[in-house]
Specification:
alpha+beta, 5-stranded antiparallel sheet, 5 helices, 5 strands, about 25% strand
Length: about 180
């Protein structure tokens, strides 16, 4: 819940920042707060996923997709995410959440996100997400590309999704939410 205030602040700031294409990388400057760190006084590993949300909201708002999603009743949800750590961000340290949209595959949107300190990558994550409609059903890629076109964006302009990410998702995927997934070891 503590990220709700940062999320609102990020969305308010993004409205005053320059507009971008969905394919342009964006950067959100931040500082490691007391609510971000753990007992070792560095950003807690789980907190990075919440901070990545801020980068995704900034990119979506600045390219116009967030407003279009709200108008259509769509909400973003994460399907899968992975992260790798190189260095720790310490309490009080300035950093940025850098985000770039990689593209769409047959089921999802893919983004690469980084935590950057003084031009150095400290953390990198890949996020696979969907948009859900008012009824909870996934929004089709056709609807997403149509929304992008309505905003004047080329839906095919991204750098593309590396094949290893598709393989990773296949290897870690859980069954559909409509399929039983009993817990057994």
């Amino acid at each position: 819940m503590h990220l709700i205030f940062r999320t609102v602040a990020t969305l308010l700031k993004s409205r005053r920042r320059p507009r971008v294409s969905p394919w342009e990388p964006t950067s959100v400057p931040l500082r490691a707060l007391l609510t971000d760190v753990d007992i070792a006084w560095h950003i807690n590993n789980g907190q990075y996923f919440g901070l990545f949300d801020l980068g995704r909201f900034d990119l979506m708002d600045r390219c116009g997709l967030w407003g279009e999603c709200r108008k259509r009743g769509w909400l973003p949800v994460v399907q899968a995410e992975q992260i790798a750590f190189r260095r720790s961000v310490e309490f009080g340290q300035r950093f940025s959440v850098d985000t770039r949209f990689l593209g769409l595959d047959d089921r999802a949107m893919w983004l690469e996100q980084r935590i950057v300190v003084d031009g150095e990558v400290y953390v990198r994550g890949y996020i696979c997400g969907r948009l859900r409609g008012k009824d909870g059903a996934p929004v089709t890629n056709e609807d997403i590309t149509e929304a992008m076109r309505s905003l004047g964006h080329d839906p095919d302009g991204g750098p593309g999704i590396p094949e290893w990410l598709h393989e990773w998702r296949r290897n870690i995927a859980l069954p559909s939410s409509r399929t039983p997934a009993p817990h057994t070891w």
